[in-house]
Amino acid sequence: LAVRVTRRQVKRRRVLRWYPAAWRERYGNELVDLLSDTYADNPLPTRAWIGIVMAGVNERGREAALIGRASRREDRVRGGALIVLAAWALFIVAGSGFAKYSEHWSAVTPLSDRTVPSIAIVVLQVATFVGVALCGVAALVSWPSFSRFAQHVGARQVIRLVRPAIVAGAISIASTAIIVEVSHHMSSFQRNVAPGPYRAVFLAWAVLLVVCLAVIVVTIGRVVLRLEYSERQLRVLSVAALTTSAAMSVIFVSLVVWWVSIAQHASWFFTSGVVGAPGALTPVPMVGCGVVMLAGLATAAWGSQRVVAFVNDTRSNL
Amino acid sequence: MNDTAATKSWRRPNDPSVLILTSLADGAKHGYALSKDIEHFAGVVLSPGTLYGAITRLEESGLIEPEVEVDRRRPYRITGAGSIALAEVVADMARLVAVGSQRLGTVTWRFA
């Protein structure tokens, strides 16, 4: 019995890992005692477990100033900018999928019907460039804070903190190099049409890149939450975040315009790709890209709303 | 106490924060005692995650405060600000009950 109780206590203590360290330090023992008082020697009901997981994630969100009103305004704008960065990562995933899927659209679209989709693609590319440039601006603006942080905590701590992103980046580059090398030895038919191992490998590579991107974004978030920003830096970050959100809206609208235009004039592109063949209006890859981008837009709106509050505060203080 | 959106957001009668403040109004209690008391007077079973989420927010807002641990259990008590906040919530609810009762013509309520 003693062993069982100990194991149960250990298991109960394990649910605390969903909470941030500071919260665990303050309330962890109390929560574990409450669980023991409430459920005695019985297993934790699924509903209670889910409630604790959700509450833990909620506390983490509050600690990172991603949700809630209690955090400092500086933390809120930083959290808002990070949420917009996460939204941008979703756009990178959806945009990469769209770029791959749509790469041969002009070859099967009548010349007279290419104007609108061409403009949509150009606008989409310009907005993407703006978004990438703004991420660069945010990184440049953060550099002095990062340098101060690195000097303060030491190189070993910094390397430990950014190691996941470095590993994820290295894996991304190495796997991409391998895929490019392999695909150079294949015909266009083998790469794009023929089912077989290449398609499976390509999908696995795409999933790997998404995971690596998620790791990099989370690592950036963990670093940024440790940095101290000046009022001026925060102003630049907030403008960059809001402009990136606007760029995402432009990208989404461009994608929809391209989609509608191709569906009207070259819908066979969404099926066999043979001119004049029966077409489709809602191909799975486009629906997937659209859904991921919509999720990105919703995320960007959430982040922007936190940033806007900061911008309004700043204006009223001027 | 400031009547801000942040403090108004939890002013529903079944809100965990209101239930906790109501429970603490007659004396300090630790987590399990709070949970049982709330279940007894309101018929609401707060999950451990919800209870401690609300305790965290109330302590951050200065509406409750911890006492010294007794047998590894830490009781919480309501603060002055917490009592004022609870009184405002109760007054709001009382007004609602009075209007509702009057319009239903069932019971006549009088509140100062």
Structure description:
The complex is a heterodimer of chains A (318) and B (112). The mean pLDDT of chain A is 88. Chain A is 79% helix and 0% strand. The longest helix of chain A has 39 residues, at 115-153. Chain A starts with a helix and ends with a helix. The relative contact order of chain A is 0.14. Chain A has helices at 2-14, 21-39, 46-63, 73-101, 115-153, 155-184, 188-192, 197-224, 231-265, 284-317. Chain A has 318 residues and is an all-alpha fold. Chain A is built from ten helices and no strands. In chain B, strands 1-2 form a two-stranded antiparallel ribbon. In chain B, helix 2 crosses helix 3 (31-42). Chain B has 112 residues and is mostly helical. Chain B starts with a helix and ends in an 8-residue tail after the last helix. At the A-B interface, helix 2 and helix 3 of A face helix 3 and helix 4 of B.
Please render the helix and strand layout as text.
The complex is a heterodimer of chains A (318) and B (112).
Chain A: H1 2-14, H2 21-39, H3 46-63, H4 73-101, H5 115-153, H6 155-184, H7 188-192, H8 197-224, H9 231-265, H10 284-317
Chain B: H1 5-8, H2 16-24, H3 31-42, H4 48-60, E1 64-66, E2 76-78, H5 80-104
Helix pairs in contact in B: 2-3
